[in-house]
Amino acid sequence: MRNIQFTIAPDGVDPKKVPYKTLYTGTKIPAIGLGTFGSDRFTGEQIAEAVLGAISVGYRHIDCAAVYGNEHLIGESLKIAMEAGIKREELFITSKLWNDMHGEGDVLIACAKTLKDLKLEYLDLYLVHWPFPNSHPPAADPNYRDPKAKPYIHENYMKTWRQMERLVDAGLVKAIGTSNMTIPKLKLLLRDARIKPAANQMELHPHFQQPELFKFCLDNNIVPIGFCPIGSPMRPDRDRTENDTVDIEDPVIVKIAKKHGVHPAVICIKWAVQRGQVPIPFSIYRHEYLSNIKAVTEDPLTDEEMKEIEGIDKNCRLIKGQVFLWPGAKDWTDLWDINGEITTARTALSVD
Predict the structure, then answer these.
(1) pLDDT tens per residue, range 16-25
(2) CA angle, 130 as apex, 343 and 167 as ends, to 5°?
(3) Rounded CA gap, 157 and 204, in Å?
(4) How many domains does the chain have?
(5) Which structural domain, as residue segments, surrounds residue 178?
(6) Which long-range contacts does 81-84 make (Cβ < 8 Å, 24+ apart)?
(7) I need a labelling partner for 144 at 20 to 30 A (CA). Which of 12, 87, 280, 334 fits?
(8) Residue 20 class from Cβ within 10 Å (0-12 exposed, 13-18 middle, 19+ buried)?
(9) List of long-range contacts for 260-267, beta carbons under 8 Å, 24+ apart
(10) 285 is catalytic
């Protein structure tokens, strides 16, 4: 990585033309980011090269996580870009606390390692990756279960959140947030937090629009960040089930894409940004990540097209999280509080 030259691509996008959302802290977050979760399909070196390429074509928002196993390589890319003239304050870097580091004292250790790997002095946003301390090995089989897995226990989550708050106090992170949360869990957090979550990262794409959770986030000044924005065709095999639908093959998406003369994935990105969420599409291919960022700066969808896409929601969750289930859980729906309350609490006493 040290020998790679970095230059601003002449066919890229001016970062100043990329829309942005504003966190309640006042910080601006670019309205599209590059995801870096691809470790089941691509090497860390490929992903790190894509990060550098994405910055060269105008991306300033990079979404990372410790569990992806590539932050030390992405850090080299960030260093190269900054040594070539990209200012640190121009970048918006997110990372996430993995599930096996929820314990007392672990959050600072995890954040410090991420900062060292990314070669940064601070993170713009740090998220609790999942609201459970349940983990799995890399490339886990879909039937894998952590024998120490537990359901959501709010008191335990708040112990983790208090450590997240201290990271803000120490200046190690500018803002903190959540990921893979539900309305009942967020209500408890908002009730008890000293520093409120600035963002919630959640699965969002045309076939899984989560209108209630989306609105809840907006109503509470929580910026919704959407993963799987085009339906994640490259997601791990463990996250595939026979009933999954394919957004980029939806007749409405295909029709609108033909009208605009673009790939259907581009329409999904346009819809996301215009709706008000921050998509973080992943690709290691230059033509794809370039077309994704261009999507948010030109040729917007019409109100009629936005309405058409609103009508194709199939409530199809792709990342079900079944590898995080605990002894006594019914199935993956227990992770998501489908009935509007934290139903998993019923098993807390038996497994805690």
Answers:
(1) 999 999 999 9
(2) 125
(3) 24
(4) 1
(5) 15-351
(6) 81/6, 81/52, 81/55, 81/56, 83/6, 84/6, 84/7
(7) 280
(8) middle
(9) 260/299, 260/301, 262/291, 262/295, 262/299, 263/291, 264/230, 265/230, 265/291, 265/292, 266/291, 266/292, 266/295, 267/301, 267/309
(10) no
pLDDT of residue 352: 35
179 phi, psi to nearest 5 deg: -150, 145
The residue type found at 29 is I
Dmax of the chain from CA atoms? 60
Inside any domain, residue 10 = no
Of 289, 333, 296, nearest to 35 by C-alpha is 289
26: which DSSP letter? S
Question: Does residue 104 fall inside a structural domain?
Answer: yes
User: What is the residue whose two structure tokens read 């609490």?
Assistant: 345
Annotate 121-139 with DSSP letters as a single string.
S-BSEEEES-SS-----TT
Does 332 fall in a domain?
Answer: yes
Q: For position 270, which CATH number holds? A: 3.20.20.100
Residue 334 is encoded by which pair of tokens?
Answer: 């227990």
Per annotation, catalytic residue among 20, 24, 68, 126: 68
pLDDT per residue as tens digits for the range 179-223: 999 999 999 999 999 999 999 999 999 999 999 999 999 999 999
Q: What tens digit of pLDDT does each residue of 110-153 get? A: 999 999 999 999 999 999 999 999 988 877 777 888 888 999 99
User: For the whole model, what pTM was predicted?
Assistant: 0.95
φ, ψ for residue 2, nearest 5 deg: -65, -25
What's the chain's Rg over C-alpha atoms?
Answer: 19
